[in-house]
Design a protein that fits this description.
Oligomer: single chain
CATH architecture: Alpha-Beta Complex
Largest sheet: 10 strands, mixed
Number of strands: 16
Number of helices: 10
Number of domains: 1
Structural class: alpha/beta
CATH class: Alpha Beta
Helix content: 25-40%
Radius of gyration: 20 Å
Distance between the termini: 60 Å
CATH topology: Spore Coat Polysaccharide Biosynthesis Protein SpsA, Chain A
């Protein structure tokens, strides 16, 4: 049996190299040995990566995130830009001074009302890297090779956005890719599954192509980001700008992927108020209407999601009849 497995892995190695057109190594995926994990090579001269971390105060989160980046990231050639959106607490400024003592860290002012898209666009204008990584301040580094994994995919010529598998603190899945559904809904796949689960069709075990990935941790080449005009800071200020970015990038010929390897922890919502006020709800609905009218066909025809499976935010996947569904536009008027 062991000899059979060795032979199968040799065949997988040769097939992967022929398919990829360049030297790669192949190993069994940790969650499902029958799934191949392709290790894409990095160039001898590592490209500079700019990691953009927006924040308004929350020194506790920023310290945890940035110190984890500096001490726990094996990839060596990176800079961290802390995008300061009108912080006011003395502890925050003391932390900024402390972190800035490291030559890899810069604090970039991004003043004004909260506008996630504008804050990150400001950061990109100050970034020096060939590769951009957008990272929430409530992300915690959970393994040293996370950045190597993301950069190796971001450098692939056919790949646009690269997302990471993100886990809640209890080791259940927060993000492993986004599919679009009638409703309209932009749903995280396999949310709340335990990190040890493979999901149906072993989708959690290997790298997959999806319509979109979350900007809580998203890597891509700067040239691609600039080509599509960056985040939409006029119409998508708070929500859905990552979905819009991914779809714009897909439209010009790239594909967006999520890698399950080297996951990170995401303390989702820790840096923003969890209270949903009528004003916040109305703003989110306006941005959702904008997204849907811009990409209406994708909510009905996401080729990376099964048309008979519906995902709910709190519940497992469920089957629906082929005739079920209401027009997206009708639901958001």
């Amino acid at each position: 049996m062991e000899g059979f497995l060795r032979a199968a892995r040799c065949v997988a190695q040769l097939a992967a190299q022929q398919l990829c057109g360049e030297p790669v190594t192949v190993s069994p995926a940790p969650l499902a040995p029958f799934i191949n994990r392709i290790h894409w090579p990095l160039p001898e001269q590592l490209p500079l990566v700019s990691i953009l971390v927006p924040t308004r105060d929350r020194a506790d989160l920023v310290r945890n995130c940035v110190e984890g980046l500096l001490a726990g990231t094996a990839y060596e050639n990176f800079e961290v830009l802390i995008l300061d959106n009108d912080s006011a607490e003395p502890t925050t400024f003391r932390l900024f001074a402390e972190l800035s003592a490291d030559r890899r860290v810069r604090v970039v002012p991004a003043p004004g009302p909260f506008n996630f898209s504008r804050i990150n666009n400001i950061g990109v204008n100050q970034a020096r890297g060939e590769i951009l990584v957008f990272l929430n301040n409530d992300i915690e580094i959970d393994g040293g090779d996370w950045l190597r994994e993301m950069v190796s995919h971001a450098l692939r010529p056919d790949v646009g956005c690269v997302g990471a598998r993100l886990l809640y603190g209890d080791r259940h899945v927060q993000h492993a890719g986004i599919v679009l559904q009638p409703g309209p809904l932009a749903m995280h796949v396999f949310r709340r599954r335990h990190e040890s689960e493979v999901g149906f069709d072993a989708q959690l075990a290997g790298t997959r192509t999806y319509a979109a990935v979350t900007a809580a941790c998203l890597a891509l080449r700067r040239s691609i980001f600039d080509r599509v005009g960056g985040f939409d800071e006029r119409d998508l200020q708070v929500s859905f700008q990552d979905v819009d970015l991914c779809l714009k990038i897909e439209e010009i010929g790239y594909r967006n992927i999520c890698t399950p390897f080297e996951p990170l922890l995401h303390l989702e919502g820790s840096s923003r108020s969890a209270e949903v006020t009528p004003e916040k709800h109305a703003h989110e609905q306006r941005e959702l209407r904008c997204l849907v009218h811009r990409w209406n066909d994708r909510f009905h025809n996401d080729r990376f999601g099964h048309p008979l499976i519906r995902l709910d935010w709190e519940n497992p996947e469920r089957l629906v009849p082929p005739t079920q569904g209401v027009g997206v536009v009708d639901l958001v008027r």
